[in-house]
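Q: DUF4038 domain-containing protein, please. Structure only.
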Amino acid sequence: MILKGRNVVWICRSCFCVLIVGFILVRTVNAGAPQRLRVSDNGRYLLTDKGEPFFYLGDTAWELFHRLNREEAELYLTDRAKKGFTVIQAVVLAELDGLHTPNAYGHVPLLNNDPTRPAVVEGPDNDYWDHVDWIIQRAEGLGLFIGMLPTWGDKWNKKWGVGPEIFTPENARVYGRWLGQRYRDRPIIWILGGDRNPENERHLAIVRGLAAGLAEGDGGAHLMTYHPMGGSNSAQWLHRDDWLAFNMFQSGHSAFNLPNYKTTLALRDLVPTKPVLDGEPRYEDHPVNWKQGEQWFDDWDVRQAAYWSMLSGACGHTYGNHNIWQMYEPPRKPISFARTPWKEALHHPGSAQMGLMRAILTQRPWYKLVPDQSLIQGNELEGADHRRAARSIDDTFALVYLPTGGSLTVHWDVARREEVQVWWFDPRTGSVQDGGRKKPSESFAIRAPGSGRGQDWLLILDKISAGLAPPRIGP
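A: Structure for DUF4038 domain-containing protein:
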């Protein structure tokens, strides 16, 4: 791609995408993983141990430890690092019969399903936990954190699935302490829950016992959050718990779920202030409403959920692919109509587009954004067409996401006094179009380069006197 004046000249779209991936690879793999994360002083986002803002870009690889061998794990982790992901969400005691079905090397995690008795054999490469160690160390070498779920929720609140329920408040604390000690020096984010909600005091005692054990084991080194069921959020039960560093919610895989930006906004306003993110939105290549043969979520659905939440004040976002979380590959039985082998699904476009989102929201920093719909008052639209707007806290730039393109009128106080530079960012390819300058005006009308489903655009407005570099992705 060559930028020429106000127009974009395409040389080769596929070549450009390769260049983007290579660019992200250099920035990610060479970075090295910070060992600790903490919450910013204003409670809005995460920081590395060096005090640098940390963009949480997660991928749901729930069955990573349980189903993949090391060669496969290497393939998966390298792909995600190249694409700009920063966190891999994976489960130790996995959902798909993780207690009884052995991993790729014939090992199970516990003795007699007892959380106080991990099946550890002296020496390297002899047990389930050695394989977990290897994956975590390889992820660290690629600059990735592991968002580790100590257990899937069916082990403490079966409700559905295989189970069995094996946790009590007491043994959860013992197990958490052992797990925390083992991984205290690794790049870990603890994610409790596992697609289950606490439904009674005993469930809450198990969750809190596990959290207490983890903190005892790792000395408070790692952040903790909670992954609930679809349509739920961690704040419903745990917001005031000190161990809950940031809120996580699951917007889920139904066309009828509450739009995720509404949950992001609601959790952002809670006291005390804590960062928030969507930890399981609609998966790419997932049947809408779990109905086979009707409609499948695609990369547009993925992008819409991501930009909706990020421009509403999220500290990051999680991507998911329906085939990858379960590492589906024939002759394995597909879960919920999975239809694409996971190695092929690695190349679905939504995952690379999440890396592009991280790249552009690093150039126009997400951690400076304040949601502000007054920028497009009267142009918000409803349903799938709904637009989200945000501005930087210092008013040097503003962003508007248009999921179906089209025209709008911008009302920005800065634009009343100063010239503004307009850019159009294509979230599908990472290309940038120069939209020209706007003279000072009470408001101005503008039209995206395209419209309709699949023609989503990110409008970038820069205050010219701020001297911001032009947005640009790739070499």
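A: Brief note, in case it's useful. Residues 372-465 form a domain with the Jelly Rolls fold (CATH 2.60.120).
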